[in-house]
Amino acid sequence: MSPKKKPLQSSESKRTAYVTIIPLSTHHHWSALIMEKTTVFDVIERMSALMRSEERKKCTQFSLQSVHLQVLDYLSRCNKYSDTPAALTNYLGMTRGTVSQTLLLLEKKGYLKKTTDTGDRRVIHLSLLPEGNAMLAQARPSELFIQAANLLNKDELTRYDEALVNMLSALQKSNKSHSFGICETCQFFTELPDGYLCGLTKEQLTEEDSRKICQEHSVL
Fold this sequence. Notes:
Layout: E1 4-9, E2 16-21, H1 24-61, H2 66-77, H3 85-92, H4 96-108, E3 112-116, E4 124-128, H5 130-139, H6 143-149, H7 154-174, E5 181-182, E6 189-192, E7 195-198, E8 204-205, H8 207-210, E9 213-214
Antiparallel strand pairs: 1-2, 3-4, 5-9, 6-7, 7-8
Helix pairs in contact: 2-5, 3-4
């Protein structure tokens, strides 16, 4: 039912103004929509706050900052097309200066190394050293999420996983940012009889490549 306008006579101006009267059923519908959107935002914000709180505790324990752990985590999951300072900057949404200083510190600690690209010496590739992988394994704040996941059944986890992935995709589109999705879910990912191929770069991919995130990822 659409809202109706009711005339309201002004005694001073003798002009008729109109106020909108919303039917009760429509009002409830609108309220439900507003509440639904607000609830989704609040839930995601609260989940993020809990995860970041756990992350800060871990970082404090190992004398790290949150950004240090985020860099280590990213480098453990990105593929060969996304292991550059520029891709890392895009993923984190931080300034180049902040990322550059973070990389210098982590390199000094012996957690990562920089390698010059053999085809283009202007490009630098980043990779974790054994010390970096060891630190990430200790500091990654996964226990809280694992405990929470154990409280849900498999069907619930699958349903929530799909919903959250769709929400992330929508946020990335709204922000016009790279999706950084898993390689094997990209429209350019091609399965061959003897392996895998990136349809964008025309390069061979390994099994490990197919399971990593890529800044060139394009949704199917």
